[in-house]
Design a protein that fits this description.
17 strands, eight-stranded mixed beta sheet, seven-stranded mixed beta sheet, 324 residues, alpha/beta
């Protein structure tokens, strides 16, 4: 029987747990969260989730010290970035892991990225990061229209959690362009941070500009006021895309189609839908469509390093990324 561990049973972790119910392989599932209330909610959501998979067994624990299994085929880490490195380091001192599925933001200190990479290399563990745009069919399949081109990527909207969502958009740019090197211009970001919905984390509004080594560029604007929904624009000389996810619509025009606008229905899959496929792929092939750890580490550090410098320039100095 395959073994899967979920670390962190909060809002996102419980959705990952629901997804495991749909996996057709028989699973022995373990869930760890220090808060009994979170475990209770996760259990209720798992048991109430409709869908039929394999014949699963599930156990709940408040500490990795309580785990009875000594090895896991897949570990899903949905804990906060400020506690993730400590939690995973403790886990790897006690059990063997074959594959990690990690949530973004990965860690809140740059050194933790390098230390965790060293652990992965030493223990020969594969790890993938849940930047999911590149796995969604439409966003995945347009790569053929943008790979190795000078593309422009724009997002604008009101208070759409820029610091939290920017990693998804930049990862998608890396995927589409095939380029992994970029610089970040924070000069148009607001100087003063705002409080995030998650306690202990912060956000910025304003405009962030990303310039890639291959000539591609991105501009991401979060307005302080209003109720403008976030809209995504992706363009190059042969293709133009407007994505209005809140409306479930995408418009696309291409040189090859004489620049006629085509309207497409679009739906972001639920996390439970995406995770079931990812876990199934990892169990059967040790691979999945998500970005691998090394590439995502590079993207995280290039992105959040300059943002931290901007934060420290105008606010009390800190030595960690205060974003989630």
């Amino acid at each position: 029987m395959k073994t899967v561990l979920v670390i962190g049973a909060g809002q996102l972790g419980s959705r990952h747990l629901q997804a495991l119910k749909l996996v057709q392989d028989d699973l022995k599932i373990s869930v760890v969260d220090p808060f009994q209330n979170s475990l209770d909610v996760a259990k209720e959501r798992f048991e109430g989730f409709t869908g039929q998979g394999g014949n699963h067994t599930i156990s709940y624990y408040q500490s990795v010290d309580e785990l009875t299994d000594k090895s896991f085929d897949v570990v899903i880490s949905a804990s906060s970035c400020d506690t993730r490195f400590e939690a995973l380091t403790k886990l790897l001192a006690k059990v063997d892991v074959k594959n990690f599925l990690l949530e973004k933001v990965l860690f809140n200190k740059e050194q933790d990225y390098h230390s965790f990479k060293k652990l992965l290399d030493e223990k020969k563990i594969d790890a993938f990061v849940n930047c999911s745009m590149r796995t969604m069919p439409f966003y995945r399949d347009i790569k053929e229209d943008f790979i190795n081109t000078d593309l422009q990527y724009f997002v604008s909207g009101s208070n759409y959690r820029l610091m939290s969502n920017i990693i998804h958009y930049v990862d998608h740019m890396v995927y589409l362009s095939g380029c992994t090197d970029f610089t970040v211009d924070c000069s148009l970001l607001d100087k003063k941070y705002i409080t995030s919905k998650r306690e202990g984390f912060w956000e910025f509004n304003g405009t962030l500009i990303v310039k890639f080594a291959n000539g591609s560029s991105g501009m991401f604007t979060s307005y302080n006021g209003g109720d403008s929904p976030a809209v995504i624009y992706i363009n190059n000389e042969k293709c133009k895309i407007v994505s209005r996810e809140s409306e479930g619509k995408i418009w696309m025009q291409k040189h090859s189609d004489e620049w006629k606008w085509n309207e497409l229905d679009f739906r972001i899959p639920y996390q439970s839908e995406m995770t079931s496929k990812i876990v199934t792929d990892l169990l059967n092939t040790d691979k999945c469509e998500l970005v691998e750890y090394d590439e995502s580490m590079n993207t995280h550090i290039q992105l959040y390093g300059p943002i931290l410098e901007h934060f420290n320039k105008y606010n009390d100095k800190i030595d960690y990324y205060p974003f989630t």
